[in-house]
Amino acid sequence: MSTLLELAGVSTFYGAVQALKNVDLTVDEGEIVTLIGANGAGKSTLMMTICGQPRARAGLIRYDGAEITDLPTHRIMRRGIAQAPEGRRIFPRMSVRENLLMGAESTGQRASEAEMARVFALFPRLAERHAQRGGTLSGGEQQMLAIGRALMARPRLLMLDEPSLGLAPLIVRQIFQAIRTLNRETGLTVLLVEQNAYQALRLAHRGYVLVNGAITMAGSGADLLARPEIHAAYLEGGH
Length: 239
Fold this sequence. Notes:
The protein contains ten helices and ten strands. It has 239 residues and is of the alpha/beta class.
């Protein structure tokens, strides 16, 4: 497999506060890679740094063999990266269908009815509510909409930031099954930032552990699940 995304020695700051410390991370084409860690570890900052907001102050970010470290955010996303951000950030006054159309418009592409049909097949609930305003959907439906909106851009790399946050266990399983289906059936590459370490590591081919802005462990999802320190910190009520 070829490497689609690479971070090499990336450090990010908010003013004088260092949020990421010399991070090395790779995502190969066709992989699901997860990044786990406690609140405040820097997981969302890493994902935002890939998108160029904030900028990496040190290190390099490469996508599909080209350096993107200093590119404007819109040019980064138009290379085939889409993100479903933490908190969903859908357009509450727009309908489900209009929200999905915005996913294609944001990358300068024309909306595809075939792509919308694929989103509706993946998330039938969205098809049932296609004319309903986004703000009236349940939390789980809004998360489905955020992922569907990202998929409308036809990305090569889908970045998901805390897709299970605040959702009931049944909905969490549905969301993770949809990610698995996308990866298996279309070969979509996924970078998943997640606090639900158990579900994330079960899903992922590989994983990284981020602690205070630094990568402390890396390995296959199965290997990380089997490590006693992972159980103690993330699977048994630890922090």
